[in-house]
Structures are given as C-alpha cells and as structure tokens.
Amino acid sequence: MVPEKLKQNQKINAKFSILYKLLGISTFIFLICVITPSFGQENVLQLLEKEFKKIVTTARPVVVKVIASQNTPAQLPPDIRKIFPSENISSGIILDKEGHIATTTFDMVPSKIEVVFNNNKKVPAKIIGMDDLTDLVVLKTDNKLPMQVKKGDSDKIGMGSWVFTIGSSQGEHPIISFGIVSGRETLPAHPCAELIKINVPVSPGNSGGAIVNTSGEIVGMILAVLTEPNEFNPLQLPMQMWNSQNITFAVPIETVKSVATKIIKHGKVPRGWLGVDIEISNFGVFVTRVVKNSPAHKSGLLPRDIILEFNNAPVKNYTELRRRVGTASPNTEVILKIHRNGSEQNYTIKLGER
After folding, report:
1. Confidence of residue 27 (pLDDT cuts 50, 70, 90)
2. Residue pLDDT, tens place only, 106-129
C-alpha cells in the first residue's frame, strides 16, 4: 500500500503541475495578444515608439544649441589660421525664464556666444561665471525664456535605469540617443561631482545636452566621454584594432542647479581650501608639503602627517579628499583625524577659499 503522506504529496504535485500548465498557457496567450499586431490595434513596439516620441517632444524645448566663436588674428597666414578652432558647437539647458542657461566649458576663449532655441531663433549670450571643478558654465541672454527645466530626481537614477540624451549637432535637428545607466562614478578630473555613468553613444556637440528619464524630466547634463581603447590582438582585423568603447558621463541635475545658483548669485562657486600637497599611503592620505600661511599650516598640520578622516568620514585617496574639501564652504570649520608618530589626533581647521 502507498503511504498516506506519499499520496498527499502526489496530489500536491499534480495540482502544481496543472497550475504551471495553466500559467504557461496564460503567459503564451498574453504575449500573443500584446506582441502580435491585430487589425485596428498597435503592437507593443508601436506603443513604445509613441511613448518615446512623447518623452522627447516634452524635453526637447529646454535644450539649446550653443555656438561659441573666436576671432582668429588676421595677420596669421591662411594655413596657420585653419589650425585654430574658430567655432565650437555644444549644447545647453535652459534653467529659468530670466535667460540663464547651463552648459559646459569651451575648448577656446570665445569672443562671441550665440544660443539657438528649439524654434531656430538665435540670440546673443554672455558668460556670467564658470566652475572649473565641475566644468559647468552659466550663460545669460537678454531674452525672457518661455521654457525652463522640468527637473527630475536624479537620486532615483541608478543601475538599469532607462534614459534619453538630447544634444546639439551640425544642422537644425538635435542628436537623440537612448541608453541604460550603469551606475555612479567620481572621476579625478571632476572630484566635486558624482557622475552618472551611461552606455549611450553621443556625438560632437552633445556636451551640455540633457539626460532625460522616462517621465520626460531632465535628470542630468552630458559632461564627458571616456574612451577606452580595445586591447591589442594580432588576430583582429585592422579596423577592429582601432575600435574603442565610449562611456558617457553626466552631471546630476541637482549638481547643475546647485552650481548654477551659486554662479548666478556670486559669479563663481565658493569652495573650501586646505593648503596641502599629498600622496596616497596604505592607511590614508600622506601629506608631503604644507603651504605656508594656509589653513592647514595655521592649524598645525605638518609634512609626513597622514590624513585618515574628514569630519568623521574615512579618506582613502586624493580625489576623495579634494571632493570633501571642495564641496565644503569657505570659513567652515572641519575636523581632520591625523596619524602622526604612531598616534592619532584630531585637528579643527577653518577652511580658506580656493
């Protein structure tokens, strides 16, 4: 005879088998209904296409083309004049109705800047300030602007998030791309901003363009493209050997707005200054030189000190220390934990202005 417990298990397994079959059939029917186009209905790709167009249409008006030009000395020979860039095209994001526009730094010192809006209207603009630690610039036009940033929450943008990029290029129409966020990174060249890392292709002129979430909100600004060349392989074809992988980085919109607000108010971004030269050690940041009359010098820091913590937060490298000092306001008191001669001690330091 079959034990009672075994009979019960067989009944349960039979029920689950039927349930799995019904679930499989239901899933198959659902996919057929959704994906397969029927008369008078749209498939899922067509619906997605409509949503994509709606998102781009919503965000497009706040992205402008920025044309920076430079006068090349007329006395230079024509062949030499061609070497010097006379025009630089980039993108910008409208910040407010008063005519403020955020963009990135230029490859030249422009003698003239013009902004082209979504309706192809072109107006002059001027630089009111820039921040070299984030590579952000704020422009000002005399025109009242009808559209401003529909700001999203960039903190909700993380690994796996879907985003669009909208940036300028040669011609009247922008370059629009779609990609997926890989995470957050802090680059040594931009220590004061944690950047959004995106696997999306961008083109020349896209710098300063917008990162848009699936709600049509601006969540970041295109800042930099890091090119990683492929490893050399003698078995590769010649063209494959020259291929490289481009990774796009964007400044979160909260950082853009914060930096822009300070530039509009002060003409710059006030940042803290410590006054030390450093190297990396196994435990923290090794001080190699203390600048005379700097905040570090006045507080008693010495060469060969090792900085372990900044305001109770561990400091492991130069980029981390630079970011913490640079994002602190001048005249702010901070506490550094220092390792010196086998012992640890805290120093209170009043930061200067960078």
Report:
1. low
2. 877 888 999 998 888 899 999 999
The CA distance from 224 to 326, in Å, is 20
Question: Comparing 58-140 with 272-353, is the CATH topology the same?
Answer: no
Backbone angles phi, psi at 2, to 5 degrees: -85, 130
Q: Which of 325, 290, 327 is nearest to 336 (CA)?
A: 325
How far is 66 from 207, CA to CA, in rounded Å?
10
Give dist(CA 240, CA 244) in Å, integer.
9
Q: Report yes or no: 218 and 212 within 8 Å, Cβ to Cβ.
A: yes
Domain boundaries 154-230+243-266, CATH class: mainly beta
Q: How far is CA 47 from the centre of its chain?
A: 29
Q: How far apart are CA 199 and CA 245, in angstroms?
A: 9
pLDDT digits (tens, 9 = 90+) for 225-254: 766 555 555 555 454 444 556 688 999 999
Closest by Cα among 203, 120, 114 to 165: 203
The CATH superfamily assigned to 58-140 is: Trypsin-like serine proteases (2.40.10.10)
HSE (side-chain half, CA atoms, 13 Å) at 287 = 22
